[in-house]
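Q: How would the structure tokens look for this protein?
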Amino acid sequence: MRTRAPLPGLARLLPISVIVVGLVAPTGCGDAPRRFTEPMVLGGQRVPPEVLERGARAYSLYCVSCHGVDGSGRGNGSRSLDNPPRDFREGVFVHVSGPPGSLPSDADLGATILNGLPGTGMPAWNGLDPEELHGVIQYLKTFSPRWQEVPPA
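A: Here is the predicted structure in token form.
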């Protein structure tokens, strides 16, 4: 019966590291695959795919930890919050300038993002440049079908 000699030091970890890198490394060279290739009508506005892509990137940097990849408000960071983050899939918002139950305007969403909501886990993201802010506002709308059905009040 033949036995294998143990691999020295790091050589034992090489197969594992190749598997792990293969699981987390992006495919190809460059950016992740595009999620949006066509414009969408959201809140009565035609939104180009480039804006939605920019918004998706900013969302993944600033929002996903609490609001989750799916917009459910159940990201890992939400566990430590007393009040759960907004579930964007429902399309229900508290801070609106229109009548209760209406969708917020872009200005409403922008104010919430830039100023945060004191007393909640929502921080102020006032360092976003205008293009990132616009992109995030539009991307948030993709989580709920309400934005495709009803324009904001």
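The longest strand covers residues 40-42.

Residues 81 and 121 are 6 Å apart (CA to CA).

Upvote if useful.
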